[in-house]
Design goal:
By secondary structure, this protein is of the alpha+beta class. The protein has 2 helices and 4 strands. It has a two-stranded antiparallel ribbon. A two-stranded antiparallel sheet has the order 2-3.
């Protein structure tokens, strides 16, 4: 785990130095989640993750890439650094 943390720290430094970095952060385990549902008359707050799953999001990066190809290249580096899959999504309307 320490090796992965060091690898991600190096990747984060590269992102910051190269101007891609906007924001990033790690997330607590799904067991720390709360789900809020205000779609009905009452506000319900439930312990636990929204969806039961074997996979979960451990953190995220918000990056400023020129285009999808550049974003996918950065995602490949991120995947190597964090030793996991990385999902790429653009912001709506950007």
């Amino acid at each position: 785990m320490n090796e992965m943390f060091a690898s991600v720290d190096r990747f984060n430094k590269k992102l910051q130095d190269s101007g891609y970095w906007v924001f990033a952060g790690g997330l607590e385990l799904p067991s720390a989640a709360k789900v809020v549902d205000a779609t009905g008359g009452d506000v319900l707050t439930i312990d636990g993750p929204y969806a039961e799953s074997k996979e979960f999001i451990g953190g995220f990066w918000v990056l400023n890439a020129e285009d999808l190809d550049e974003a996918l290249g950065l995602a490949a580096e991120a995947s190597k650094a964090c030793k996991g899959r990385v999902e790429v999504r653009p912001f709506q309307g950007v």
